[in-house]
Amino acid sequence: MFDRDTEGVRIELRSLTKHYPGQPAPAVDNVTLDIPAGELVVFVGPSGCGKTTTMKMINRLVEPTSGEIRIGGQDVLSLDPDQLRRHIGYAIQQVGLFPHQTIAQNIGLVPNLLGWTADRISARVDELLSLVNLEPSAFRDRYPRQLSGGQQQRVGVARALAADPPVMLMDEPFGATDPITREHLQNEFVKLQKQLRKTIIFVTHDFEEAIKLGDRIAVLREGSHIAQYDTPAAILADPADDYVANFIGQDATLKRLALMRVSEVPATESPAGPGLPQVSADASLREALDTMIAHGADRCSTPAGVLTYAALCEAVGTRSGEQEDVVSSDR
Amino acid sequence: MTADTLAVGRSRKLGRTFGARHLFTPVAICAVLLALYAWVGTLELDSIEQRSLNRAVIVTKAVEHIQMTVAATTLVVIIAIPLGIAASRSRNRLITPIILTVGNLGQAVPSIGLLVLATFLMGVGFQTALVGLVAYAVLPVLRNTMVGVQQVDPALIEAARGMGMTRGQILRRVELKLAVPAILAGLRTALVLTVGVATLGAFVAAGGFGELIVNGLKLNRMPVTIVGGVLTACIAFFIDWLGGLAEDLLKPRGM
């Protein structure tokens, strides 16, 4: 539908508006946004800000009142909605696996709608189960009820990926799991996306999740107005206004530390003695800081040398006074 | 591992319930029929009683009774399931109350009165009896179909739509499949009701065990009435048992 290429394609939203009849204000008001090919863009905002509605207009579960949507240059509103949806991956918070179908039937649903042969579907199901770290022989013939919440979410992601769509829409797909499982699923998903390079729109109200997963974040306010649209690092370093700063919360600098790896900061001294606490090269700076505080030290040793507290501050661009401003501008 | 144990546990449980629950009813029915046979055997039957209580008559009445039940239920399935689906659609919101009212009326109007009215229009016979039976049994199937379809988790419908299933595909592959247990339960209720109400067929010359009951009462021959009543009850229990089996066998796996 949008090219044979299953890697991500560009999504363009132009003056997209949804006005439900009988309501004073539009739910989504004149949104214009470009989502570059192969990027994961997170829509983040409070409940009821219209982020889900905006996302659902892209696969036309919600029909826009006015505006234009292009996927890979093609006008979405001119396509048959059912056909369109078969070429867009869709994962939701409640997962929505069909309880009367096996895991294999659930995952094979869209390929089945697209008329793939049984052999091709079955091979694809096994491939996808392996991709989301579920042993195909053990899970293929089970029913959703026999899976844990985290396993069901994985199947939900596998099902969305089934026909290898270039575009995926995900509405809090990890929302219904406990924090430990969620973190685990997020980490796996980051790895998966590095491999797949789909264009993904990911809706969440959890800013931490947005930072962790997003190539870019669109912070939305009431009516789906875009408060800021930028990379996580840029939003954390320079929130556009009070609303965004509020949304980030008090610990913007700590969150920025979490985005940076130890290996990205030049080691300041030659390899140090055995007394210093150790951190690995791909640990985040936040973890390095945590290690320092835990050991009451102002430095820790990395594979490349020694990381000092001062170097860490420099890495996030802290100068005395500036941090104070960021915090006070919240109030 | 957990799921394997779970699956084994389920099938074992199914086996056990089959043993206890599903064998009790046929055994009890056989016992009652034997007791009835033995009891009638001890009686001195006069000529009137003999005319009713002999093999040929009882077999004929049983066949008539079951024919009436099966024909009425088939019609009920044809009428009530599509109506129930129609009533469950949100775009039919306006006609749903009308459909339900008609279904309710069918059950609220006394069957005997309805049969009398139908007799004026159609004369007596099998078809007239069917009108009364169908009117009476539509409601449980209609309502259960509607509720069964409506209670499907909206998240499933949203997921189905989001994956590009058409409305027809969602109805056939998701909503109706998941409504099967509810529809079967309604059908089972309807069947049992029909067996009971089919005794009224005697008043419009449609036959069935109702004739034994009515004749027994009119001619003051208690054994004839009792045989008619007990046999009707046995059919009702037997059909309920079949319905229970069908529910267990046809309900979607994985639920």
Written description of the protein model:
The complex is a heterodimer of chains A (331) and B (255). With 331 residues, chain A is of the alpha/beta class. Chain A folds into three domains: 11-87 and 165-230, Rossmann fold, CATH 3.40.50; 102-162; 261-315, CBS domain Like (Alpha-Beta Complex). Chain A is 39% helix and 20% strand. Chain A contains 15 helices and twelve strands. Chain A has helices at residues 51-58, 81-86, 103-107, 109-113, 118-131, 136-139, 149-161, 179-196, 207-213, 232-237, 242-248, 252-259, 285-295, 309-315, 322-330, and strands at residues 11-18, 28-35, 40-44, 66-71, 74-75, 88-92, 167-171, 199-204, 216-221, 225-230, 299-302, 305-308. In chain A, the strands form three sheets. Chain A has a six-stranded mixed beta sheet with strand order 6-7-8-3-9-10, sandwiched between helices. In chain A, helix 8 links the parallel strand 7 (167-171) and strand 8 (199-204). In chain A, helix 5 (118-131) crosses helix 7 (149-161). The relative contact order of chain A is 0.13. Chain B has helices at 2-42, 47-52, 55-88, 96-108, 111-122, 126-150, 154-162, 167-197, 209-218, 222-250. Mean pLDDT of chain B is 87; it is low at 1-16. Chain B has a single domain (16-250), classed as MetI-like (MetI-like fold). The longest helix of chain B is centred in the N-terminal third of the chain and has 41 residues, at 2-42. Chain B is elongated, with a radius of gyration of 22 Å. With 255 residues, chain B is mainly alpha-helical. Chain B is built from ten helices and no strands. The interface between A and B is medium-sized, with 30 and 24 residues. Chain A: GO terms for molecular function: ABC-type quaternary ammonium compound transporting activity; ATP binding; ATP hydrolysis activity. Chain A: Belongs to the ABC transporter superfamily. Chain A: This is ABC-type quaternary amine transporter. Chain A: Keywords: ATP-binding, Nucleotide-binding, Transport.
